[in-house]
Amino acid sequence: MDLRIKNVSVVTVTLSAVVVWIGFYTWRIMFNNFAVEVFDASPTDVGLIQAAREIPGLLAFGAGALALYFTESKIAALSIVVIGLGLIVCGLSPSLLMLGLGTVLMSFGFHYFEPSNTSQLLMLSKSGELGKTQGKLASFESMAGLVGAGLVLGLTLIIDYRVTFYFIGVLVAAVGIYLVFALPSNRGKSERRKVRLQRKYWLYYTLSFLRGCRRHIFTTFAIFLLVKEHGLDITIISGIMLANNVITMFTNRWLGHLSDRLGERAVLVGCSMILVFVFTGYAYVSYLPVLIAFYLIDNVLFGSSIALKSYLRKISTPEDLTGCLSFGMTANHITAIVIPILGGVAWTTFGFEVTFLAGAAIVFVDMLFALRIPGRGGEAEPLPVQSLPD
Predict the structure, then answer these.
(1) Alpha-carbon gap, residue 229 to 122, rounded angstroms
(2) Is residue 313 within 8 Å of 130, Cβ to Cβ?
(3) Which residue stretches of the chain have pLDDT < 50?
(4) Are the beta carbons of 144 and 17 closer than 8 angstroms?
(5) What is the Cα–Cα distance from 211 to 365, expressed in whole angstroms?
(6) Within-domain flag for 172
(7) CA-to-CA distance for 58 and 330, rounded, in angstroms?
(8) C-beta separation of 246 from 38 below 8 A
(9) Dist CA 21 CA 37 (whole Å)
(10) How many whole angstroms separate alpha carbon 223 and alpha carbon 32?
(11) Phi-psi region of 378 (alpha: psi -120 to 50; beta: other; left: phi over 0)
């Protein structure tokens, strides 16, 4: 029986993303508790591992270089295999050093998957529905996160962290291996890709850089704040992740519609304004339910990346798109090694308040640059379109 997938469409793009986000959420949910409970990790230890995790993001421009020789569909499938292997190594870890190595391997797969898969999606989307299409995909990713959180919650009740890493890692790697052989090329023989930095994309790169700075503070220290300062265990953390993904299943589509309707600038500026208050709240609010609410709001507003990618698609050509996305990923990670380390040291030396106030300042600067995006208008070059399933 022929099991080959006949064509690369938004359906296969979605399937790939779902598998990746199940794997990523497995690592994301378990990492802090695994590091603290098994290895008694300090804030500085966590900062160092998180800094190492971001090295592949700094090297994400390599995905654009690979696209010169391999199709985006092949790069995405191979990346899924690497993610699965990284999760398995995390489970095998006898020390924080090995946990860091497994995390870096997983991260290489994730950061090379994202620009490749996103490029395919944007080139399959109608110009006037860039936000809508991305919102649908982001909703499926939230569903995948929901599945990942549910798996972790259920599995850790009956087996330990290590076996949970093994189980989900093998599952992800197996799907990736299948897609390597099943997915055909997503482009014709005459289609080419270019990897080049151009001045006309400077605002996209700048916003990617600033959003990366605030993201590294959030992803490194927000959950760690709840675990370290408030003693939340893996069951509660999994519950928070479940709630987060239920919420973003709906809000991602809503943000996508807003981006199409109001324009990318309105969405990016509005989200940044809210985040200034959220980061300040992390620093000064000690009431746990409010902190959890801040965490959920912060996750919802990550969906504003839909607007930034829509903006790029409107100003870029198809041959530049994969390269621009990969360079944007690199810009997003330029400070990835520095911020987790400095944030961890600042937390240890002065208290967590300093770390989160720095995040509020970065978000404010991001808002100022987002104001430079044109209000409405701009059309992407038309490409063949296939609908994303509801």
Answers:
(1) 41
(2) yes
(3) 1-6, 190, 377, 379-390
(4) yes
(5) 10
(6) yes
(7) 4
(8) no
(9) 24
(10) 8
(11) left
In angstroms, rounded to a whole number, what is the distance separating the alpha carbons of residues 254 and 62? 33
Residues 6+ apart with CB under 8 A from 381: 127, 317, 318
- Return the structure tokens found at 261: 């309707």
Query: What does the block give as tokens for 41?
Result: 């990790």
pLDDT for 195 equals 60
Residue 175 in any domain: the answer is yes
pLDDT of residue 368: 94
The pLDDT of residue 149: 78
Contact 72, 117 (CB under 8 A): yes
pLDDT of residue 386: 43
**What per-residue confidence (pLDDT) applies to 185?**
60
Q: Per the structure block, which two tokens stand in for 254?
A: 């809503």
* Number of alpha carbons in the 13 Å side-chain half-sphere of residue 56: 24
Rounded Cα distance between 140 and 144, Å, is 6
The answer to whether position 376 is within a domain reads no
Residue 183: per-residue pLDDT = 72
d(CA 41, CA 340): 14
Q: Report d(CA 156, CA 108) in Å as an integer.
A: 26
User: Can you give the pLDDT at residue 196?
Assistant: 67
Percentage of the chain exceeding pLDDT 90: 27
- Quote the tokens at residue 274: 């809210």
Q: Determine the pLDDT at residue 194.
A: 56
In angstroms, the CA 209 to CA 214 distance is: 9
CATH of the domain at 25: 1.20.1250.20
pLDDT of 236: 84
Residue 191's pLDDT is: 57
Which structural domain range is residue 355 located in?
10-186+194-370
The residue assigned the tokens 């939340």 is 232
Q: Yes or no: say if 105 and 86 are a contact pair by the CB < 8 Å rule.
A: yes
Q: Is residue 192 within 8 Å of 344, Cβ to Cβ? A: no
In a domain, 228, yes or no: yes
Per the structure, the count of domains in the chain is 1
pLDDT at 7: 52
> Which residue, among 24, 21, 79, has the nearest Cα to 249 in the 3D structure?
21
